[in-house]
Write a structure and sequence with these properties.
The protein has 208 residues and is of the alpha/beta class. The chain has one domain: NAD(P)-binding Rossmann-like Domain (Rossmann fold). The protein is 28% helix and 19% strand. The protein is built from 5 helices and 7 strands; from the N terminus they run βαβαββββααβα. Strands 3-2-1-4-5-6-7 form a 7-stranded mixed beta sheet. Helix 1 packs parallel to helix 2 and helix 1 packs across helix 3. It starts with 18 loop residues before the first strand and ends with a helix.
Protein backbone atom coordinates (compact mmCIF):
# COMPACT_ATOMS: atom_id res chain seq x y z
CA UNK A 1 0.00 0.00 0.00
CA UNK A 2 1.22 3.51 -0.82
CA UNK A 3 -0.51 5.01 2.22
CA UNK A 4 0.87 4.12 5.63
CA UNK A 5 -2.23 2.77 7.34
CA UNK A 6 -0.46 2.90 10.71
CA UNK A 7 0.42 6.59 10.40
CA UNK A 8 -2.16 7.79 12.92
CA UNK A 9 -1.08 5.38 15.64
CA UNK A 10 2.65 6.19 15.44
CA UNK A 11 2.32 9.19 17.78
CA UNK A 12 0.88 6.91 20.47
CA UNK A 13 4.26 5.14 20.85
CA UNK A 14 2.62 1.76 21.23
CA UNK A 15 4.79 -1.15 22.32
CA UNK A 16 3.54 -3.59 19.69
CA UNK A 17 5.07 -7.10 19.95
CA UNK A 18 6.36 -8.54 16.68
CA UNK A 19 5.40 -12.19 17.25
CA UNK A 20 2.31 -13.28 19.15
CA UNK A 21 0.67 -16.64 19.82
CA UNK A 22 -3.06 -16.88 20.51
CA UNK A 23 -4.37 -20.09 22.06
CA UNK A 24 -8.03 -20.59 21.25
CA UNK A 25 -9.69 -18.69 18.39
CA UNK A 26 -13.27 -18.71 19.61
CA UNK A 27 -15.25 -15.90 21.25
CA UNK A 28 -12.34 -14.04 22.85
CA UNK A 29 -9.42 -15.41 20.83
CA UNK A 30 -10.86 -14.56 17.41
CA UNK A 31 -11.15 -10.89 18.36
CA UNK A 32 -7.74 -10.87 20.06
CA UNK A 33 -6.05 -12.37 16.99
CA UNK A 34 -7.87 -10.06 14.58
CA UNK A 35 -7.03 -7.01 16.71
CA UNK A 36 -3.34 -7.95 16.86
CA UNK A 37 -3.36 -8.36 13.09
CA UNK A 38 -4.97 -4.94 12.58
CA UNK A 39 -2.68 -3.15 15.02
CA UNK A 40 0.48 -4.28 13.21
CA UNK A 41 1.80 -7.52 14.73
CA UNK A 42 4.02 -9.03 12.03
CA UNK A 43 3.70 -12.73 12.89
CA UNK A 44 0.75 -14.49 14.49
CA UNK A 45 0.70 -18.12 15.60
CA UNK A 46 -2.88 -19.34 16.05
CA UNK A 47 -3.84 -22.52 17.92
CA UNK A 48 -7.30 -24.13 17.76
CA UNK A 49 -8.48 -27.57 16.68
CA UNK A 50 -12.19 -26.63 16.64
CA UNK A 51 -14.47 -25.67 13.74
CA UNK A 52 -16.97 -22.82 13.47
CA UNK A 53 -20.60 -23.61 14.23
CA UNK A 54 -23.63 -21.42 13.56
CA UNK A 55 -24.01 -20.89 17.31
CA UNK A 56 -20.61 -19.12 17.32
CA UNK A 57 -21.77 -16.33 15.01
CA UNK A 58 -23.47 -14.23 17.70
CA UNK A 59 -20.16 -13.37 19.37
CA UNK A 60 -17.37 -13.70 16.78
CA UNK A 61 -16.21 -11.87 13.63
CA UNK A 62 -16.76 -15.00 11.52
CA UNK A 63 -18.97 -15.00 8.43
CA UNK A 64 -21.88 -17.32 7.65
CA UNK A 65 -19.82 -18.64 4.73
CA UNK A 66 -17.12 -19.75 7.19
CA UNK A 67 -19.33 -22.15 9.16
CA UNK A 68 -17.59 -25.54 9.13
CA UNK A 69 -14.10 -24.03 8.73
CA UNK A 70 -11.34 -24.47 11.28
CA UNK A 71 -11.31 -21.38 13.51
CA UNK A 72 -7.60 -20.66 12.92
CA UNK A 73 -8.10 -20.75 9.16
CA UNK A 74 -11.12 -18.47 9.38
CA UNK A 75 -9.30 -15.87 11.51
CA UNK A 76 -6.28 -16.04 9.19
CA UNK A 77 -8.54 -15.31 6.22
CA UNK A 78 -10.12 -12.32 7.97
CA UNK A 79 -6.66 -10.94 8.76
CA UNK A 80 -5.37 -11.55 5.22
CA UNK A 81 -8.30 -9.59 3.76
CA UNK A 82 -7.22 -6.57 5.82
CA UNK A 83 -3.46 -7.01 6.33
CA UNK A 84 -2.09 -9.30 3.60
CA UNK A 85 1.49 -8.61 4.72
CA UNK A 86 0.91 -10.23 8.14
CA UNK A 87 2.25 -13.78 8.42
CA UNK A 88 -0.24 -16.10 10.11
CA UNK A 89 0.76 -19.62 11.15
CA UNK A 90 -2.13 -22.04 11.59
CA UNK A 91 -1.95 -24.83 14.18
CA UNK A 92 -5.03 -27.09 14.20
CA UNK A 93 -4.19 -28.73 17.49
CA UNK A 94 -5.44 -28.89 21.07
CA UNK A 95 -2.83 -27.19 23.23
CA UNK A 96 -1.71 -29.02 26.36
CA UNK A 97 1.30 -29.10 28.69
CA UNK A 98 3.38 -30.90 26.03
CA UNK A 99 2.78 -28.40 23.22
CA UNK A 100 5.96 -26.72 21.99
CA UNK A 101 5.76 -23.06 20.96
CA UNK A 102 8.34 -21.29 18.75
CA UNK A 103 11.11 -19.85 20.92
CA UNK A 104 11.01 -16.44 19.25
CA UNK A 105 7.42 -15.69 20.27
CA UNK A 106 7.21 -12.53 22.40
CA UNK A 107 3.76 -13.00 23.88
CA UNK A 108 1.28 -15.84 24.39
CA UNK A 109 -2.38 -14.97 25.05
CA UNK A 110 -4.43 -17.87 26.40
CA UNK A 111 -8.09 -17.63 25.34
CA UNK A 112 -9.18 -21.21 25.97
CA UNK A 113 -12.43 -21.94 27.77
CA UNK A 114 -10.49 -23.92 30.37
CA UNK A 115 -6.98 -22.59 30.97
CA UNK A 116 -4.68 -25.41 32.05
CA UNK A 117 -0.88 -25.17 32.48
CA UNK A 118 1.28 -25.18 29.35
CA UNK A 119 4.97 -25.18 28.51
CA UNK A 120 6.70 -21.78 28.31
CA UNK A 121 4.09 -20.42 30.72
CA UNK A 122 6.42 -17.52 31.47
CA UNK A 123 5.46 -16.12 28.06
CA UNK A 124 1.74 -16.29 28.78
CA UNK A 125 0.96 -12.65 29.46
CA UNK A 126 -2.82 -12.73 29.69
CA UNK A 127 -5.67 -15.21 30.09
CA UNK A 128 -9.14 -13.91 29.24
CA UNK A 129 -12.63 -15.35 29.52
CA UNK A 130 -16.25 -14.54 30.32
CA UNK A 131 -19.59 -15.94 31.46
CA UNK A 132 -22.57 -13.92 30.30
CA UNK A 133 -21.84 -10.28 31.21
CA UNK A 134 -19.13 -11.23 33.73
CA UNK A 135 -15.56 -11.09 32.46
CA UNK A 136 -12.24 -12.22 33.94
CA UNK A 137 -8.80 -11.04 32.85
CA UNK A 138 -5.77 -12.73 34.42
CA UNK A 139 -2.48 -10.87 33.95
CA UNK A 140 0.92 -12.58 34.22
CA UNK A 141 -0.59 -15.92 35.34
CA UNK A 142 1.47 -18.51 37.18
CA UNK A 143 -1.21 -21.16 36.56
CA UNK A 144 -1.34 -21.79 40.29
CA UNK A 145 -4.77 -20.19 40.21
CA UNK A 146 -6.62 -22.04 37.46
CA UNK A 147 -10.08 -20.87 36.48
CA UNK A 148 -12.44 -21.39 33.56
CA UNK A 149 -15.45 -23.41 32.48
CA UNK A 150 -15.89 -27.08 33.10
CA UNK A 151 -15.81 -29.07 29.84
CA UNK A 152 -19.52 -29.87 30.16
CA UNK A 153 -20.44 -26.22 30.67
CA UNK A 154 -18.52 -24.12 28.18
CA UNK A 155 -20.88 -24.93 25.29
CA UNK A 156 -23.89 -23.58 27.20
CA UNK A 157 -22.36 -20.47 28.76
CA UNK A 158 -24.67 -17.46 28.11
CA UNK A 159 -22.95 -15.22 25.58
CA UNK A 160 -23.28 -12.21 23.31
CA UNK A 161 -20.84 -10.12 21.31
CA UNK A 162 -19.99 -7.37 23.82
CA UNK A 163 -17.98 -9.28 26.49
CA UNK A 164 -15.49 -10.98 24.10
CA UNK A 165 -14.96 -7.75 22.16
CA UNK A 166 -14.52 -5.80 25.40
CA UNK A 167 -12.00 -8.30 26.77
CA UNK A 168 -10.00 -8.38 23.54
CA UNK A 169 -9.74 -4.58 23.45
CA UNK A 170 -8.44 -4.47 27.02
CA UNK A 171 -5.96 -7.29 26.43
CA UNK A 172 -4.49 -5.91 23.19
CA UNK A 173 -4.39 -2.33 24.46
CA UNK A 174 -2.74 -3.29 27.75
CA UNK A 175 -0.06 -5.42 26.09
CA UNK A 176 0.79 -2.52 23.78
CA UNK A 177 1.36 -0.14 26.70
CA UNK A 178 4.89 0.19 28.05
CA UNK A 179 3.62 0.23 31.64
CA UNK A 180 2.35 -3.32 31.26
CA UNK A 181 5.87 -4.70 30.81
CA UNK A 182 7.18 -2.88 33.88
CA UNK A 183 4.78 -4.61 36.26
CA UNK A 184 4.82 -8.40 36.06
CA UNK A 185 2.79 -8.99 39.21
CA UNK A 186 0.07 -11.62 38.88
CA UNK A 187 -3.36 -10.01 38.94
CA UNK A 188 -6.92 -11.23 38.34
CA UNK A 189 -9.59 -8.68 37.43
CA UNK A 190 -13.29 -9.54 37.54
CA UNK A 191 -15.88 -7.19 36.06
CA UNK A 192 -19.61 -7.36 35.46
CA UNK A 193 -20.39 -5.29 32.36
CA UNK A 194 -23.98 -4.74 33.49
CA UNK A 195 -22.77 -3.29 36.78
CA UNK A 196 -20.14 -1.22 34.94
CA UNK A 197 -22.78 0.28 32.63
CA UNK A 198 -25.03 1.12 35.59
CA UNK A 199 -22.08 2.74 37.38
CA UNK A 200 -21.28 4.93 34.36
CA UNK A 201 -24.92 6.02 34.13
CA UNK A 202 -24.90 6.87 37.85
CA UNK A 203 -21.69 8.91 37.52
CA UNK A 204 -23.15 10.82 34.58
CA UNK A 205 -26.34 11.59 36.52
CA UNK A 206 -24.37 12.80 39.55
CA UNK A 207 -22.47 15.28 37.37
CA UNK A 208 -25.69 16.93 36.15
Amino acid sequence: METDIYDRQKELNLNIPEKVAVIGCGGVGSWVALSFGLIGVRKLHLYDYDIIEESNLNRTPFKISQVGMNKCEAVAKLIYERRPETKVFINKIKVDENTEFPNDINVIVDCRDTSLPIKQKEKVIVIGGYDGSKITIHYHPTYKKVWGDEPVRYTITPSYIVPPMFISCIIVNYICLEEFWKNTEEKIINLDLKELSQLLIKIKEEKK
